[in-house]
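This entry is set out below.
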Amino acid sequence: VKAKEITEKEVEESIESVRKMCATVDEVKDRPIQESDIIEVDIDLLDDPTKNVVTDQQLEVTKETMEPVLYKTVIGLSNLENSDFVTEPPKEMSEKDAQDFKPQKHRVTIKKISCKTMPELNDELAKKVGAENVENMKEKLVDKLSNEAAMEAKEMMRKQIDEILLKKYPFEVPTSLTEAERRQAVKEKIVQMKREKQDDEMIASKQKEIEEDVAKQVDVKLRLLFLTDSIAEKEKIVVTPDELNLKMSTHAMSLAMGGWGTKSDEEKQKIYTYFSSLVKEEKVKDFLIGKAKII
């Protein structure tokens, strides 16, 4: 698997992302909402009784970042106005889940409208993001895109290794080892479905299907864990403190938001073990990729 070549379009999109990041935002009071505005909204579920589901949520008004029905609803509204809409299946929902999706009526209230002023593409902008000039900024963006493409190619090869290992070494994982993880995974799947506005009745009707899907996922996960642990032991592949710290540093924000500073030593040790296991699994797969020379 070769890393994809970086196109001029991708570089231009990255430059636009930099400009958006450095844009200034000013409140608008004399016109309705239009494309690319930043809005602050409340959303209520018009059930019996009415229930607030979103408060002071900030959204960028674009077709790429909003659900189509909400985008069409807010375009043209003015500050403090509201409008009703009926939910549609989320874009990322599977076709099967979309067939069971139950539409619900909501009301969106506009609390604030702001617009972004994009900076010019010049050396001053480049210096704000740590580059010497525009040309140097483009070079840095190309390097970043190239690194991301290389990582994407590596992940594809790691998935190929997964498929090869699972096919070559079939075995059953004892139920006693999968039960706790299976229960936790089912719980997380149900939480996700509720976020997608699926009601309790729909979730209950899919309980058996959820449990079967989760059981397969947990089985694959634990089989790969046992296999990579065995290979790591045989080939003396270990995780160094620097490798562990590097992996955890890429998740620093999520760890902080998860209350890292308030966790007990035992909880922190579990997190260390989890990340160490991730790094070891990646190192084993990369070792096998080097040996197999997958293309």
